[in-house]
Specification:
With 86 residues, this protein is mainly α. The chain has a domain at 16-73. The chain is built from four helices and four strands, in the order ββααααββ. The strands form two sheets. The protein has a two-stranded antiparallel ribbon with strand order 1-4. Strands 2-3 form a two-stranded antiparallel ribbon. α2 (33-41) packs across α4. The longest helix has 10 residues, at 59-68. The chain is globular and about 30 Å long.
Length: 86
């Protein structure tokens, strides 16, 4: 039985939202260092695989957290971007 969440394809390209850009400038949310580093690296060009290479295995979970906070987004409509964990 599958338990948990569907993993993102490593080719998904996250985008910083306006709120994310504001957070970089203001530090109003006082993100921890790992979240802030990831937010800085999100540029709309780097795929998840590059972010994972730079920040390690926690990048996907941290990216999801940034999305929950409204600081990044990505296109959910592309089914090719989703895969079940192996």
């Amino acid at each position: 039985m599958f338990v948990g969440y569907i993993r993102l394809d490593t080719n998904v390209i996250p985008l910083k939202t306006e709120a994310g850009a504001t957070e970089i400038r203001t530090r109003a949310m006082r993100l921890d260092a790992r979240l802030r580093s990831l937010l800085i690296l999100v540029d709309g060009h780097k795929p998840l695989s590059n972010l994972q290479a730079a920040l390690g295995d926690g990048a996907e979970e941290n990216l999801r957290r940034l999305r929950e906070l409204g600081l990044v987004t990505w296109d959910d409509s592309l089914s090719s971007q989703m895969q079940r964990p192996s």
